[in-house]
Amino acid sequence: MVSKLPPECLYKIFDEFSYSQIGKEKNSFTHLHSIILVNKYWCNVAIPILWRRTFNWIYQKNNYGNRHVHLMSTYISCLPEESRINLNKLKINSLIIQSSFRSNFDYPSFLQSLQYKWIYNSVNKWLDVHVSTDIIRDNYQTNLIPIFVEELCKLFMKRCTNLLQLSYNHLDDFGEYPIYPVVNMPNFVGASDALANLRHFDFHGCLDQNILKSAAKICKFVKVLSIACCCYDNEGLATFIDQQTHLENLSIEFEQNGIDLPKIRNSLHNKGKDLSALMIRQIFFPLDILGYSPNLTGLFIEDGSDLHRDIFGQFVNWKFFQLTNLFLAIKNVHIGSIIQLINNTCGNLTTVRIVWTKPVDKDNFNLYTETILISCPRLVAYHGYFDDNEIGKMPEFFENHQNLEEFHISLYSLTRCEISNMLKKLGKYLPPNLREIYLPANYVYTTESLESFLESCAAKLHAPLKLTLRCRSTIHEEILSRYVERKIIKFT
């Protein structure tokens, strides 16, 4: 009966075993391998699914041995005659290159995800296996690898029909050494078709501006843009950003604090209208440059500059009805701006992580704690500060936040803060799904209050609590050990 299903139905079924559905954690492509062995009909339907994310299967799983060598052999067998002739001139003793064998499937046409460094590394491994031993290693490292990579990139650009994800991350697997040269894939024949539907693009900000300018002419509808190591005012990068019209997820890591990059800054004007996720490290411009982002669900901002500046501008005055995840790590923070931003999320925040070093307006700290208490009713995770003067309100916070799973209080003051009475009361209002508590080193408490709290954990919590207490004596340690043995807590 299943054999009689139309290919569209089988495709839907088999797609449930694809990389995007299963991911790297499960026993991935072996399921699809089994499917293609059933019969020719099933094979024809499943092969395109299996070959959509071949590099992802192999490199992100990390336990498939030399499969990337076999993968390269398959792709090399798909090279056109012109490329084979060019490679044969290198006098490489490989039957795969010399053979006129052609596969039954156009494997490159199925590819939807391509990462430059994975091609480079795979070619390197393939040459280790197939190159004649009389060729000196240093010779083919400097000459053969780039030639092979270029021929394969030409193949992918000419034959890929629906490339959705491209990574030009040209550092090695340890993120240390650059891979050179980096070929300009958008300039190859067929790139205008292969890259027209690109939706996910990530690269280093120092990537050759000519590559980015070429890509800007083709790729207009990128939704996920991730830029690492943005260390200078790359005109090609600015051009590429300027051409994007539907950015939904933007991630930029700038390398230098406080250094203005005017071309890139100008390209970001009003790019926030469709954003649902925004991550900027070492920000050097006010966020309101991006314009209003009504669909924003996640905001990650980091600024380690010593400059006292307002990085928010008018951004904090806008309403963010969908913002649920907030992460701020700002050295010289305006607490008042954070308070205003939290209030304008209209009670929808579920995750808050806030770190600062030198608040500009310390007098607002008490109001900040009140804001966390009142304006975040849906909190699931809180990592941040809590005013010692408001410590008595922590049980009330737990009582009003019964969805809480993580509660991590960072050290704000070195002054000892007595929490014994509060700790006893806290146990009465423990959220049932609470799984992690971290209390800072200046919190002090009696052994009696600790035991009372732990008994409440035993009675109320659904799972062992990961508990981190920085201030403890030998007697405290003995009490904690007993509850670890009872599997009430996991102590760190």
Gist of the model:
By secondary structure, the protein is α/β, with parallel strands linked by helices.
Give your account of this protein's structure.
Among the domains are: 1-50, no CATH class; 386-492. It contains 22 helices and 16 strands. The protein has helices spanning 7-14, 19-22, 30-36, 40-50, 54-61, 67-77, 81-88, 95-98, 107-110, 116-130, 137-142, 144-159, 191-194, 209-218, 235-243, 262-267, 335-343, 365-375, 394-399, 420-428, 447-460, 474-485; strands at 113-115, 165-168, 200-204, 224-230, 249-254, 277-281, 298-303, 325-330, 351-356, 381-384, 406-409, 417-418, 436-439, 443-444, 465-469, 489-491. It has a 14-stranded parallel beta sheet with strand order 1-2-3-4-5-6-7-8-9-10-11-13-15-16. It has a two-stranded parallel ribbon with strand order 12-14. Strand 15 (465-469), helix 22 (474-485) and strand 16 form a beta-alpha-beta unit. It is globular and about 80 Å long. The mean pLDDT is 88.
State the shape: globular
- What radius of gyration results from the CA coordinates? 28 Å
Helix content: 25-40%
Query: Order of strands side by side in the largest beta sheet?
Result: 1-2-3-4-5-6-7-8-9-10-11-13-15-16
Mean pLDDT: 88
Uncertain segments of ≥5 residues (pLDDT<50)? none
Give the helix tally: 22
* Strand portion: 5-15%
- N/C terminus separation: 56 Å
Structural class: alpha/beta
Largest sheet: 14 strands, parallel
The total strand number stands at 16
**What's the multimeric state?**
single chain
